[in-house]
Amino acid sequence: MVSLRLIRRLQVICKRKFPKNWISFSQFSSCACQRTTAPINCDGHEDDHLRNEEIFIYSHDDDVMQFDAVIQDTAPSGSYHGTVIACHGAPGSHEDFKYFLPYLKNMGVRFVGINFPGFGYTASHPKLRYDNRERLEFAQQIVKHLDSNAKLVFVGHSRGSETALKLSVLNKERTAAVVLINPVTLLVYRGLRPLWRIRLFAWLWNLGNIAQFILKPAVYLVYRYMVKLRANTGNVAAASALSMNTLHLESQIEYIHQLNHSDVGVFIAYSGCDPFIEPELSRHFADSFNGIKHLECRAGIANESIAFDDICKVVDAGTRRIAMYFPEDDHFIQKNRAKLLTEI
To answer: Who is most buried in 105, 129, 276, 337, counting CB within 10 A?
Structure first.
């Protein structure tokens, strides 16, 4: 669980004054904008907009770890229309959100995709433990370096949802909304069960270099052929497993409580065909947000239009927390529902 000392330190880092003429949540992320009439080409072959940012965070023994963070930033000079900051899962990268880019560019919204250390773009560090504290501090430092007065929307997919949730609280004065896609839940879900497998891997990994040399190809094959998630190397697969080992689901509760007493909008997207997370656990997670409104979106473009209209109605009625269930979708809702998710 993130310590109160760390929370205070991060809050001091973020404590800045910003102008009051921010765009509102309704102007930025809901139905005040007209829906585009046709899908945009999302082939993912546009300019990657990658750049580097020097980031420093503390290790567990209070040494400073330096990272040459690779981030995707579509508008480094900023955008008046707002900034979307995305946190990927494990495994994952900024590429998990590539289908968002054409729509956000069309709206003039800045997109910043964080690449966490050890997942293929940002290099790891020998003292990195792949835990919640490190991920949160790393992401918070990137937010600080953006130096933008625009309203923020944090987006998290899967393992990244925990980080996005906490970032929205640490920066709640600047945050319009947080969007959680196939989020981790408050209870142990099937992708983590049985827990002893992940615990055993982490224990073996910490035995040293010889054990790691043996484990890298093994965990790579497990992710590729059994888990069926793309981890490009054994190092990335190991980082993913270690990241899941340090996942503390219950640590989200205190942040949810703070969001429930804030004006930050919440949108949760979960699916019925997710092989890793049961929909009933996702609904249980969503119900922890006060006053949340449950909606559903079936497959098909026509149903997306209906869902968009439903969202507009509940937002216009004053609802700021929405959970949308996609019965036919899998663990990557953002791939096939990018148009809807970027227009809410």
So the answer is: 337
